[in-house]
Every structure is written in structure tokens, then in C-alpha cells.
């Protein structure tokens, strides 16, 4: 259990540091979920639930940003998004070390969540007021 605490603490700190306020209820729900998690399956379920919220936010931000762009800039955004997806998958797959045991599974899922949160924040920041 001690081996799970450090990555979980690092993950929580990274997520909170990178996230723009997206709803105190959602953040509290995620924090409560992680605090009550006992097993790897519980932790991954918490991360997955939060990922689904952040993935929706990312997609909403992408569509909203896209609606503000000219056709040529839309094409650039699509190219950038595809490159980001390839990066996220390659980077987070690296965390899923087959010899890393349950911690690798948590780290890989946390990576996907953190990258998705960061990209949602980035797209939000690119939107014009």
C-alpha cells in the first residue's frame, strides 16, 4: 500500500496544479473517490471517472475553438490535435510498463488523465474571449 501512496500523491498534485477550476463539485467528487479507494481497481475507477469528465471538457473546448477559426486554421488545429493524440498515446503507453505491476496501470491511467486535462486547459486558453 505504501508503494501506491507516492504515485497517488504525485498524481493528485499534478492534476490539481494543472487543472483550471472546472467545478468544485467535480474536483471534490474526484478527491473523495481517491480518498476512499482501497484497491488498484478502485483507484483506476476514480481516474476513469475523472477522465470521462475531462475528455468531455476537452472535446467541448475543441469544438468551441474550432467554431472560432477560419478553414485554414481549422485544418491546422486538426493536424495539431492528431499529433497531440499520437503523443499522448505513446507517452502514456510508456507508463504502462508490463513489468511494473499494478503501479504501472495506475501511472498509465493517471498519465492519460493528466495529459487530457492539460490539453483541455490549453484549448480553453486558445479560445478568443
Automatic annotation (TrEMBL):
Keywords, ordered alphabetically: Coiled coil, Signal
Q: Which InterPro entries match?
A: LprI-like_N
* Coiled-coil stretches noted in the UniProt entry, renumbered to this chain: 48-75
Under Gene3D superfamilies, the record lists: 1.20.1270.180
List the Pfam families hit by this protein, alphabetically: LprI
Could you tell me which residue ranges the Lysozyme inhibitor LprI-like N-terminal domain spans? Answer: 33-123
Q: Does the record bear Signal in its keywords? A: yes
Superkingdom per UniProt? Bacteria
* Range of residues in the leader sequence: 1-19
Q: What is this protein called?
A: Lysozyme inhibitor LprI-like N-terminal domain-containing protein
- Its source organism is Halomonas campaniensis
Q: What is the lineage of its organism?
A: Bacteria, Pseudomonadati, Pseudomonadota, Gammaproteobacteria, Oceanospirillales
Amino acid at each position: 500500500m505504501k508503494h501506491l501512496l507516492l504515485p497517488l500523491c504525485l498524481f493528485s498534485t499534478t492534476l490539481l496544479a494543472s487543472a483550471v477550476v472546472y467545478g468544485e463539485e467535480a474536483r471534490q467528487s474526484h478527491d473523495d473517490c481517491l480518498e476512499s479507494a482501497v484497491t488498484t481497481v478502485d483507484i483506476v475507477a476514480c481516474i476513469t471517472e475523472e477522465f470521462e469528465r475531462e475528455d468531455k471538457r476537452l472535446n467541448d473546448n475543441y469544438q468551441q475553438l474550432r467554431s472560432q477559426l477560419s478553414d485554414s486554421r481549422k485544418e491546422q488545429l486538426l493536424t495539431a490535435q492528431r499529433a497531440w493524440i499520437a503523443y499522448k498515446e505513446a507517452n502514456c503507453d510508456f507508463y504502462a510498463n508490463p513489468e511494473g505491476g499494478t503501479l504501472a496501470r495506475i501511472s498509465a491511467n493517471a498519465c492519460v488523465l493528466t495529459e487530457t486535462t492539460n490539453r483541455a486547459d490549453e484549448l480553453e486558453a486558445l479560445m478568443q474571449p
